[in-house]
Amino acid sequence: MSFINYLSREINCKIVYYGPGLCGKTTNLQYIYNRTNPDAKGKMISLATETERTLFFDFLPLEIGEIRGFKTRFHLYTVPGQVFYDASRKLILKGVDGVVFVADSQMLRAEANIESMDNLRTNLAEQGYNLDTLPYVIQYNKRDMPNISPVAELRHLLNTGDVPDFNAVATTGEGVFETLKSVAKLVLTELKRGAAR
Amino acid sequence: MASPQMVMYEEEFAQVQAVTDRLVQDANARVVFVVDKNGQLISASGDTGDLDTTSLASLAAGNIAATGGIAQLLREQEFATQYHEGVRQNVHIQVVSGRVILVVIFDNRTSLGLVRLRVKRANEQLTRIFEMVMAKAQDPFQNSPFAEITDDDIDNLFND
Q: Residue B8: which of A5, A42, A66 has the nearest Cβ?
């Protein structure tokens, strides 16, 4: 749910990075944080365990520019990927405007990807959202690892709705900003469409 | 869309700000802020100088969301009030109208009793204001700034 403040002339939107455990959601945010001009970002907050696994969420506020005199801000969140944190994942999806599904390209993680995608669909539905109508993109991460599935196979398994998808190596930043720009653009286009209704 | 977009116009913003400004004074608090349940900061009053209000807003909302999850598991409707006691500072968090969160940060210049008392009145005032805000958001005749935005505007935002 976007938030428009006429006094400060700001538009705030929420984007959630979803995906199986250790797929690179936090790494995406860390790369964005490290590569963004200090004026355009706030502090990155990570609520993680002692072993640096996301416990509740990571949060990064980002300003991407002005649109018709309105400052456009995106609040980026990640969810905890581990299966048993499902209750927390549901909470973070509340009020979401756009979703990035980060898939782990390694063959061994194929099942975890599918399970996480099903979980995303279920949890969104519980909040009254439909993944097929929500601004949403897919990122095939870890393309630099050995034993990865071909993109065509990942696409066949995960991208049934033919949404924009990107290859990525989040540790080096490959595909990270392309993914973010794509989902941000979809969110704004959806808000514009909503306003025209 | 699962929940309607929240749009704050100057008039309502000024009303919210007036309530929080007054609460800072009446409760002798350090900072008061109002946050949307999704973590967006709506207004802040008091000594916000060195505070990262954006992060605080997001964490307060996360906190309320987590407590709401616990409430659901216990078949409680909601835990509308929370209090965190620190060594030097304390935080009082109140859910207003099931929709926004009123956060009061205070130290030993005041007491929890006074903060609670003043929050109660602010809660009633904010409830009325946010009911109006949400009624406006559902009014199809209200203009959204997005109605005038073109595809080119959106493209230009992403041109390097």
A: A5
Q: Domain tally for chain B?
A: 1
Letter string b/e over residues A121-138, b meaning 16 or more CB atoms within 10 A of that residue's CB: eebbeeeebebeebbbbb
Task: Please judge whether A42 and B62 are an interchain contact, meaning their C-beta atoms are less than 8 angstroms apart.
Answer: no
Query: Are residues A61 and B52, on separate chains, in Cβ contact within 8 Å?
Result: no
Q: Please give the model's pTM, rounded to 2 decimal places.
A: 0.90
- The hierarchical CATH code for the domain A3-196 is 3.40.50.300
Q: In what order do the strands lie in the sheet with B90-96?
A: B41-46, B31-36, B100-106, B90-96, B81-85
Q: Do B3 and A95 touch (CB under 8 A)?
A: yes
- Model confidence at B140, pLDDT cuts 50, 70, 90, reads low
The residues facing A14 across adjacent strands are: A75
Average pLDDT of span A71-98:
93
ipTM of model = 0.80
